Amino acid sequence: MPMLNHCKKVWTNFLSCGGFDAQALSGLKLVSASKGRIICELPLEQKHLNRLGGCHGGLLSTIVDVGGSLAIAAENMFATGVSTDLNVSFVSGAKLGETLTIDSRCDRIGGTLAYTTVEVKVGDKVVALGRHTKFVRLAHKTNAEKKASESK
């Protein structure tokens, strides 16, 4: 539970900044977290659909971006770096009213880069698979400064 609470604080910070994440993913629910891994759920709403009524590829790309960031947060990081590469494979569709389950993990976090994998499913059906690489050198510095200020 402590890691989930930490990730919820990070997510609340993301949302408080407004912008695209807050608009597109306001309904995202963080379900569970452990070291380097987080599970989230998102019920699909009308705003998440493309013109054909399916889950929009841009939404799935945003989910891979945010999912990767939250997986880095699950490494006990508050700052999560900036994207350097994002790859998404759209495997199958999802539609209005279905709930996406997002399983994100941090495969490796180094001093400069972090590598994450995100799997998006509806039930047992894979909807999208993503990889997200982030530059984290400055995030490590921010995290160290935050921890130092909290210990005073």
UniProtKB/TrEMBL annotation:
Residues covered by the Thioesterase domain: 53-126
Family from the record: Belongs to the thioesterase PaaI family.
Residue intervals passing through the bilayer: none
Keywords carried by this UniProt record: Hydrolase
Source organism: Entomortierella parvispora
SUPFAM superfamilies: Thioesterase/thiol ester dehydrase-isomerase
Record protein name field: Acyl-coenzyme A thioesterase 13
One of the Pfam families matching this protein, by short name: 4HBT
GO MF annotations, alphabetized: fatty acyl-CoA hydrolase activity
Coiled coil, from the record: none
Matching NCBIfam families: unchar_dom_1 (TIGR00369)
Domain of life: Eukaryota
InterPro entries: ACOT13, HotDog_dom_sf, PAAI_dom, Thioestr_dom
